[in-house]
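[audit] Reproducing an earlier prediction to check determinism. Same input, same settings, fresh worker. If the tokens differ from the archived copy the diff job will pick it up downstream; this log only records the rerun itself.
[audit] input (534 residues):
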Amino acid sequence: MEMNDTGSSAIRNIEDAADRMIELLSQLFKSNTILISVRGVSSNPLLRMFNQEELLGLDTDGSVLFDSIGSLILLNDNRPLLVSDTHKQPASPALDFIHTQGVHSFIGVPLLTEDGESLGTICLLDAAGRHTKEDLDLLGAMAYFFTYIMNLERKLEDLEQRSQSKMDLFAMLSHEIRTPMNGIIGMTDLMMTTEMNEEQQYYMEIIESSNAKLLQFLNDVLDFSKMEAGKLFIEKEPFDIITALEESVYLFSTKAFEKNLEVILNVDSEIPLYVLGDAPKIRQIIMNIVSNALKFTHAGEILIELKSLPVHREEIGIRITVTDSGIGIAQDKLKLLFNKYTQVHQSSELHHYGGTGLGLAICKQLVELMGGEISAESQEGTGTKLEVTLYLEKYTSLPSIPFEKDVLAAIKILVVDDNQTSLHVISSVLEDWSVAVSSAQTAGEALEILAANNDYDLILMDKDISGTEATELAKHMRQLAPGRKLPVILLAPLGTNLDEETKAQFASIIIKPIRKVHLLNNILALLKHSKPES
């Protein structure tokens, strides 16, 4: 139910809190309908309704439903109320009415001031009768948290007090909630290592996922409260921008490979080793964008690029681009992408996206706070590209990889990878080092190239070539180069477990996503040992 803007900053803040509470409750409970009613804070009531599955009738004016539920709480002396079965409770007009709307059971808790004054109610309605005493206790705790915010809002007298107090509140809540949450996460991790049946494993996975969502929610709200209070400042310290990008991407790589997604890094060699800037905030921007790409990509790839730009006001220009092959965004919703508390994707039967809708809004504010720009391009069904442009002060002129461009001149390398983007990126990097590169996307194509010319210095081969076992392909390749030891480097996704027999088939193993410096060091080391010194 929509509310008219009264112009009161207190009401706007409470509306935001109600929206966030509705979103969090919808993730914690499976109830068909969630209601929040707040009265007495302004001349207009604040009413919020969320239908999870749209199973209830609700064919009347929503305010009638709010009034009926509210009257049940009032008649219960403003105490929490659980009605397991509307058929079995003593008859009353309110019970009869909500029963006609398809409500089998409901729980409701009052919103009370410190003086015991009633400000409204939070209620959960269900058609299947799934509510329990534990649900009532949890809803009561959430109502206490929500009431705490409302009580605080009513006490604040000016904008500075409001901003500072809210930031302190969120910091306190974040700290107080994190303490038990860390215990829950630790015990969950321990439980995941024990022997469990399939049903128990499923429940533990839900707990683990819920822990992550709640922590992300806390982090996002705390960050945004700091921004709105003007308490977030940009620091300038020397840091390695390439390492910051690569380490941030690696945090998500294992999960991406579990979804059978290819994660590709493409870093410009012209970027200096160290720059001056706020490393933690730049990492946060990168992780938010990569996390977003991972959430909405179910097949294909995620390409993360770091490119240098022309010098701007004696600063180093860099552009971070994250391109995915995910579900994309409709053009009419693309303009909403960086708005706070906005979801541009609807959950489906296969995928539940959730989230606070704050991640990219925080990115936008951080980027603009650093004097940069962020933009997005997308097409529904084909993927999304996000670009972040930043200008940072140069700290040193040392290059990120201290080698000449012709460091691998006169070297011949065959690259085998069934992902076209990955194949192109690896080949381009090698060509920048003056390598004579041949490339193949299939095992058959690679064997044909070797059969025609087997004088390659080494081979770079992806672990997963469609329909071909890597170790078998490596054996066939060596058979085509008899009389010499042909070094084969295996490119394996982060988190891959290889047995000793498999490892023995390869001269070296490089982890994907590939870091340029790792690639170059591996090649140089192999060439040094496979060729006699001049």
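[audit] rerun output stored. Observation attached for the diff report: The chain has 15 helices and 17 strands.
[audit] end
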